[in-house]
Amino acid sequence: MKYLLTLMFFAMSFTASALTLLPANKGITLAMTEQNDQLLVLLVVKNHGDNIDAINLSEKFALTGDVVAVYQKLGYEKIQSIALNNRQKTQSYPIANLLSPAGNHPAHIAAGLNYHKHADEVEAKQKPFLFAKSTTPTRSEAIKVYKHELLDYEVELCARPLTKITDTTDILATEFALFLCGDFTDRALLMRGINLDNIQSGQGFEQAKSKTGYFPTGPFMIISKDWRTLVNDIELTTKLNGQIKQRAMASEMVWPIDKIAKNTLLQSNQVNASTSQHSPLLTNKELNSDMSILTGTPEGIMFSPPDTRFKIATAMKYVFSGSFTSTELKKYVIEQYIAEQLKHKRLLQPSDQLTLSATYLGSIELTISEPE
């Protein structure tokens, strides 16, 4: 009975935390919806779970468009003043109708191995790296998994620069908006494409992480003048079928957001081996406000690399089966491991339910589905 009460209390606390918004004296919470083919920007004042109470800033100021563009025109002080006074008429909006706050750029920037414990669980060097995330951001749409895929989740804190960043920008003075996001991966495709001798090259990551639906995002964007301190208050959580799999503070990231932005600019002139075409991270040597930064995931993913026992057993099979005459050992081990993972259904399966959440940023509810 005591155990049951503890579980009930924990579940209630988790739900309450997911509904909590950033206090207006610390910053503003924005969202975006669409009406009559126009983008409307909302100042969120209450989160009820299935719907929100919000002030329609687009209606009040006759401004429509992307959430960051409208914010740039109105400014922080004006919007926060409205939030603090909270005397404006609010309207109710379904959470399901809120759009992604990620920006409409065709490629975003992602950091890999940016949490030490995550690097440990995949047996990689504790050294972050960057790669392109080239897929359209979504909200809480179902993610399809095909029979040949090893689908894995990652919860992340995402950021958007509120102004354009170039080589001459004082990055320490740059402000970022924050939102919740997921970074999904086909581990089979990644294992085939990764450069095991130099993971930090980013090779194989863009392809394995840029499939349709692999960039789900939360409903809210928060902006604070003290955004660095705010990052330290944000806890990231993943629940799979009701069980917590990932839980960590965003403050644990190795490269903070501004360092990721700085390193992106430093690498913009370098060849990025994450695609077969060797495309650069930035095409115009600038990080603009339509782009998002995925800051990396903490430990707790489903995938784990093959252990020594598996490698030895597979190497023996490689020799005694005569496979050494037709394929390389490394490739053979990878394919055998992928087959073993698929056979035992070790990663996400159809009907799995995921909840990604973050302090002040709401949640992403996802269902894993079969292809039609």
UniProtKB/TrEMBL annotation:
Record-linked InterPro entries: Fumarylacetoacetase-like_C (IPR011234), Fumarylacetoacetase_C_sf (IPR036663)
SUPFAM superfamilies attached to this UniProt entry: FAH
Keywords linked to the UniProt accession: Metal-binding, Signal
Keyword field contains Signal: yes
Record bears the keyword Cell membrane: no
Pfam assignment, any one: FAA_hydrolase
Taxonomic path: Bacteria, Pseudomonadati, Pseudomonadota, Gammaproteobacteria, Alteromonadales
Native organism: Litorilituus sediminis
A molecular-function term among this protein's GO annotations: acetylpyruvate hydrolase activity
Protein name: Fumarylacetoacetase-like C-terminal domain-containing protein
Domain Fumarylacetoacetase-like C-terminal: 108-368
Residues in the signal sequence: 1-18
